[in-house]
Amino acid sequence: MIRLALAAALLIATPAFAQQGHQGHNTRPAPGVAEPASTREFRAANARMHRDMDIRFTGNADRDFAAGMIPHHQGAIEMARIQLRHGSDPDMQKLAEEIIAAQEAEIARLRAFLAR
Q1: Structural domain range at position 45
Q2: Is residue 15 situated within a structural domain?
Q3: What is the pLDDT of residue 48?
Q4: DSSP secondary structure code for residue 59 in this structure
Q5: What's the pTM?
Q6: Residue 13 belongs to some domain of the structure
Q7: Domains identified in the chain, total number
Q8: DSSP code of 9?
Q9: Cβ(63)–Cβ(69) under 8 Å?
Q10: Which are the contacts of 101, defined by CB distance < 8 A and separation ≥ 6?
């Protein structure tokens, strides 16, 4: 009975939490409040990635996947470079470097596929 009550409470609360989280997504600071440089750079990289991912679909799932993943991976590289410029945590810096190497290799593989 307690499990059922907890499950019901969670189901009722979930939309409110999800909505609350969504409302806070991509918010801007109040007028006159300076936004950190890293935040401005992340916003720009995110906008660029989403714009570039808006590809013309061909109906060929393989080609569309490759064409869409290139800007997606490029966005990850840009975010990792922002982390390297502005971050300070050694683990996050290491992860950013690993992401750059991995995503660059995957972009090369995706471009080679598209060139065939």
Answers
A1: 36-116
A2: no
A3: 96
A4: S
A5: 0.72
A6: no
A7: 1
A8: H
A9: no
A10: none
pLDDT per position as a tens digit, 18-31: 444 444 455 676 67
Which pLDDT tens digit goes with each residue over 31-76? 767 899 999 999 999 999 999 999 999 999 999 999 999 999 999 9
d(CA 45, CA 65): 20
Tokens standing for residue 33: 């409040």
8 A C-beta contact, residue 96 and residue 55: no
* CA neighbor of 42 nearest in space, from 76, 92, 91, 72: 76
Does 52 fall in a domain? Answer: yes
pLDDT above 60: residue 108? yes
Nearby residues of 109 by Cβ (< 8 Å), 6 or more positions away: none
- The Cα 113–Cα 107 span in angstroms is 10
User: What separation in angstroms does the CA of 34 have from each of 41, 85, 88?
Assistant: 13, 19, 21
Q: What is the pLDDT of residues 71-106, one digit of tens each?
A: 999 999 999 999 999 999 999 999 999 999 999 999
47 occurs within a structural domain:
yes
* Residue whose pair of structure tokens reads 């059922």 in the numeric block: 4
Cα 20-37-31 angle, rounded to 5 deg: 60
